[in-house]
Every structure is written in C-alpha cells, then in structure tokens.
Amino acid sequence: MDFNLSEQHLMLQDSIRNFAAKEVWPIAEEIDAEDKWPEGMWQKLGNLGIMGITVDEEYGGAGADLMSAVLVLEELSKSSPSIALSWGAHANLCANNLNHNASHEQKKKYLPPLCEGRHIGALGLTEPNAGSDAVNVQTVAVRKGDHYVVNGTKMFITNGPVADTIILYTKTAKEKGAKGITAFILDTKFPGFSVSKKLRKYGHRGSPTAELVLEDCRIPVENVMVGENRGIEVMMSGLDVERAFYAGEALGIAEACFELSVKYARERVQFGRPIGAFQLIQAKIADMYTYIEAGRMLCYRAAVFADKAKGGGKGTEVHKLSSASILFNAEMAARIADQAVQIHGGYGYMLEYPVQRFLRDAKLLEIGAGTSEIRRLIIAREILSM
Q1: Mind listing the pLDDT tens digit for each residue in 295-339?
Q2: 218 lies in the same domain as 313
Q3: Nearest partner of 86 among 209, 252, 193, judged by Cα
Q4: How far, CA to CA in Å, does 30 sit from each of 24, 137, 206, 208, 316?
Q5: Are residues 136 and 189 in the same domain?
Q6: Taking the CB of residue 131, how many other CB atoms lie within 10 A of it?
C-alpha cells in the first residue's frame, strides 16, 4: 500500500504545523500548568476549517478523508496533546460520528454549528462502572410519548464541561444486553442535563473533562440515531474509527519527544563532548526513530483502511488493524517519552522542560478507547475467531 501523502495532505500538514508552532506551542506549558483551555482557541481552530474536517461539505464540513484528520491530530499533538485530544473528541468522536450515522434532518440541524466552531461536541459513553466493559452502560432511557426520559451518569467525558452536543449511549432494553443500547443526540440545554464536576487529571491538563449527570433528562424521539436498540452499531463502528484516529496523537507525541531529544543530545555537553557522541545515547535515538517509523506505517494504514471500511462490522479486518495501531503507537509513545526524559537527565524531570509533560500525556493513550489489555483481546479474538 502506498503511503505517500497527496499534495492536499502535505499542504494541510504544513498549514497545521505552522499554526501549531505559532498559536499552540508558545502557550502549551501555560495550558498544562494552569489546567485551563486557552481563550479563543476553539474559534481559531474553526477559522482553520478543521472543526468538521471529515464532515460532508453539504453540512458545512471540509469533506476530507480520515487520513487528513489523523495528520491534523498528529501535528497538534506535537505541540499540545491537550488541544489535540479535545479537538479530536469534537471533530471525530462527535462530528464525524454524526456525519456517518445521523439522519439527513439531524445532520442539517446539528452539524453546521459544530463545523463552524460555534458549538462544541463530545461523546458520552464511559460510566463509573462501564469503562472497558463499554456495552454494560447503565444509563437508562424510557420512552414517554414523544420524548425519552433519561437517567444516569457519564464519567471521564472529554469536553464535557463545555459541550453543546453529545452523542449519548443509553440502555432502552436492559434485558437485551448489548442489543438494547440506543444512541441519542443530546443537546446539553435539554432539561435534566448537568455537569456534576470538572475532573482534575494527571495529563492532558487544559483539555476539559467532566462527570455528567442526567436526571429525568428529556430527549425528543427525533434525536435517536439509527434507531432504538441499534446503538451497538454506532458504538462499534465509532470505536474502530476512534482507535485508528487517536493513534495519530500517540505518533505526534513520540515525534515531539524524538525531536526534543535529538536537539538536546546535540547541545548538552558532558565529559567534554555532546552527549549524542556517546553510543548509549545514540542507541536510544536510533530506537526512537525505528519505532516511530514503524508506528507511522501502521497508523496511516489503519486510517486508510478504516476510512474505506466506514467503521466496518463485526469480524472485519478493521477491528484488528485499528486496535493494533493504537496498541502499538500508544505503548511506543509512552516508551519514547520515558526515554526522552532519561536522555534529558535531571532537566527532564523539571517542569520547565516539555518532555515530562509529553510523558504524562502519553499515558492516557494506553487507557482511553479501550485499554492496551482490551486491544490485545480484540486482536487475538479476531485472529482466532473466538
């Protein structure tokens, strides 16, 4: 498979790289230290035309492919994984999901403001007792006339404190298990919705995360996505794309750590020589490069495949490939970030040096969208057909 980027991909990559260098990198440390989303950033991202990057042009999007979205995520992650994470939750987990699964009328209503950056999107899947066991969601929706009454709690929701539109997973037929899940489009202005609390995190500080509460929340029947008790279709296809997509963030973190390590190895002098002259440092740099290039091939291949498969279905290659991509790249990013701190020595442990920030940020990618353990189970199950 040819992974040479098209001229359009290269232009997009260059544009986001320049934007990140000018608008994101200079404030990345401040974002982390203050755990605060920078004022005006959503509008700046909107002005770039990337808030609905994979959304059809008919609904205000750019109509680009998943590879384009991965490239944007990769470049943003080199400066601030926090900005990248929140943008990804909006553009991929919410807007892209709506574009693939919502009805024409739902798209006309909800996608234009999301694509313009006037509204912010999120995904409401994880719950206090339903993390890796995602299909065990306990949030319940009961139909009452032309509305559903929803009760439950969602946990660890990226963009939760600021979201206007949330794709929400509930149980509408608990006795049916996974086949009793329904996906809704939740407008956070609906009565009964509230943000319980903003959560403080070890990494990805500045990206707003919250616990959400639905207490007799009324959602109109027309906000059901695909159909009642068909939410598992939306969930599984969304997770495949999410895994292929977020491998790009891991790749960006690894590349940033590599570049910082190479620069430091050239400049830091010990025993009368730059530390890059020592073979043990050279070995670390060589390993970093090798892992990154391997991860890039897997990441880009998964993005191309997931885009063509449109999420695929049970038993398809995309389950295995997207899981392998995020598994390898997430663990690779954590390993490289750790080695970057080691190369920087005592300075790498100081908050003034960004490598420690990337190390903290990298850890989430081994947990979110299915832990590394879950990803291995998916891959093995697909290989063994069990």
Answers
A1: 999 999 999 999 887 644 445 789 999 999 999 999 999 999 999
A2: no
A3: 209
A4: 10, 36, 9, 15, 43
A5: yes
A6: 17
Take residue 348 and report the two structure tokens written for it: 């790498």
> Is 30 an annotated catalytic residue?
no
CA distances to 56, 98, 158, 200, 223 from 104, rounded to whole Å, are 11, 10, 26, 38, 12
- Report the length, in residues, of the chain: 386
266 lies in the same domain as 361: yes
Within 10 Å of residue 26's Cβ, how many Cβ atoms?
A: 11
Residue 1 lies in a domain: no
Burial status of residue 346 (CB atoms within 10 A of its CB: 0-12, 13-18, 19 or more)? exposed
CA distances from 68 to 10, 12, 235, 296, 298 (A): 9, 7, 22, 14, 15
Determine the average pLDDT of the residues in 102-106.
98
pTM of the model as a whole: 0.95
Question: Out of 75, 233, 242, 382, which one is annotated catalytic?
Answer: 242
Tokens (6 digits) for 101:
């699964």
**Whole-number pLDDT of residue 3:** 62
pLDDT score of 386 = 57
Number of separate domains in the chain: 3
Measured distance CA(379)–CA(315) in Å, rounded: 10
